[in-house]
Amino acid sequence: MKHGHEPFVRVVKRTNISKQKVILYRVAALLGALLAGALLVAMLGYNPVQMYSDMVSGALGKTLIAVNKKGIVEFSTSSQATLKIVTLLLVTSLGLTMAFKMRFWNIGGEGQILVGAISCSYIAVHYGNTWPHWLLLVVMFIAACIGGGLYGLLPAIFKAKWGTNETLFTLMLNYIAINFITYLQYLPAWQMDGTSFPKIRNFSDATRIPEVLGVHAGWMIALVLAVLVYFYFAKTKQGYEITVVGESANTAKYAGMSVTRIILRTMFVSGAICGFAGFLQVSGASGTLSTDTANGAGFTAITVAWLSGMNPLLMVLYSCFIAILQRGSNRIQTTMGIPKSAADMLIGIILFFMLGVEFFINYQLIFRARHAKEEAAAV
Amino acid sequence: MNGSLSNILNFINMAVLASAPLLLATLGEILTEKSGNLNLGVEGMMFMGAISSLGAAYGYEQAVMAAGGTPSALVATIIAALAAAAAGGFGALIYAFLVITLRANQNVTGLTLTIFGTGFANFFGELIGKQAGGFVQVSAPTKAMFSNIDFGSLSRIPVLGSLLFSYNWMVYFGLLVMAVMAWFLSKSRRGLNLRAVGENPATADAAGVNVTLYKYTATVVGGALCGLGGMFISMSSTACAGVWVHDCVNGYGWLAVALVIFAMWSPARAWLCGLVFGGLLVVRNYFPIPGLPMQIYSMFPYIATILVLVFASVRQVKEHAQPASCGLNYFREER
Q1: ipTM for this model
Q2: B237 part of contact set with chain A, CB < 8 Å
């Protein structure tokens, strides 16, 4: 009689779930997403196995480390390009995580990267041929961090004071930054000497970050930064404050924390780290500034931060994973004729699956029949 | 007609055209947010609508021509519109399933939808383009269906004719949707229920309103409208006009999300605010400011959006206008 009123399926919050099970669920979701992607390309008439294997080989090369023509051991040509993407994604997602932990939806990573890049490019364009190497690098680094930091601070001021919608604010700042670079491209002082082509000049060698194993040293700094951010959240007072504000601003207030100060400080740091990523791009990866400097990393890094559950160490793993997808998509475009936008679509599908699986980690479905049996057993 | 008047008229014409996709997407997002779902995937759904309409119209034309017939421009247009609405609705359905049924975070799910929709559109745009031998483009008669309508003598009334009777059908369609939605939200029983769901789902639930059904329906219909907004961009905007252009939506969806706040969740105000933003998007082509570089002038719509956001928050407009449960998921079990 009781069962007549019971719905076919009930949703109950899980009270305890083992860590292994959580990992198992997430891995299953990841595989499910890759399978869904495979199904899609198969329906379009392509061989999905070849697609994934071409992606991996296109991104990593035959071997990860190779001996180049001069007999020096370094990363292979393909993996060098991938590692540059990893660096950009990792640093940016570390920066964004600062804000996300606080539930501050900073989707202006793109703009903060670009303003960081613009700030240090100003130094490179004007003093690139006069200052010594070490001074250039130090000043460019500081300029990029301050530039990106201030660009992150701006929406935070309004958020803290009036609760202005930060999602749209930071997003609009992206478009403003990119338009500003287009403007710079038309300034004679920033162009190649003797041309009026709208392109910013290539920077002098003295502005470039030295290479380690064939890739600018930024990749090593990024790894160190990941560990630092991990400890910042796990061990420091400031990191703890961010988490508390993220959980509940009121709790933080009652605990005597200055929420405004925490928001402002954190967003400055978040923007500064993204600005640093911009410095790595112009001074390390490309040697010039263009509208492609950030190349969508501000958005892709959001994915990295979320996939890794905002765990800085997992971010290293996911940055590599997403970078392989992105870099590998260039290869499948040439070998199989699959447009490289496939990577973006695939990233979207993966995230959909990962968002969906959280439900099954947090909740349990109880079906009527099974529930009845359990009850009978209990009696 | 003197030069400056015709310049002003041209400006208004172009502003109206630029506002049309914004209006459709803004209306879609208003409907979605009225149900309590803050869907940040507008940009993605517009992208999906843009490519699906173009691809479906192109596919239909190719199929008819392969069979030896002559494709009908009207049928192609109807197919395009249905495909755009279906694609936008499909994007919204993914969002709705994740957010309503699986209780995922609304912000992240919306952003993901934008990433997915952008990739989806560029992927299929390039794929169809490659199969078409370079780029996709619909036939001239279908393109003509999206050009400005000639209302005969009405269109030739001085000034007024050009102001009111010189647009393509989608502009008038947008106005129709606006009127219907304004009536629906303020006058109909279902509209009232929907608003109740957005304001306080628990109360609506207790009153016997099927909260889940309302949320799903509003979100999916809202997504369909965003898809139609995307169709305007791929089929009738001057930049694309029936040809696939990589990254064509380019921020329109985000402007629409901001416009919802600017319009304070009112369909009629969405039209007015859409016009202002349409004007900001094209003003640089008609009224150059001496000494102001074009690239700086292009920032105006984005700067205006920020000013609007700040203004709305300082005046606390949000507290009065935004549906109270917007952005929060409703768990019946956790009431």
Answers
A1: 0.89
A2: no
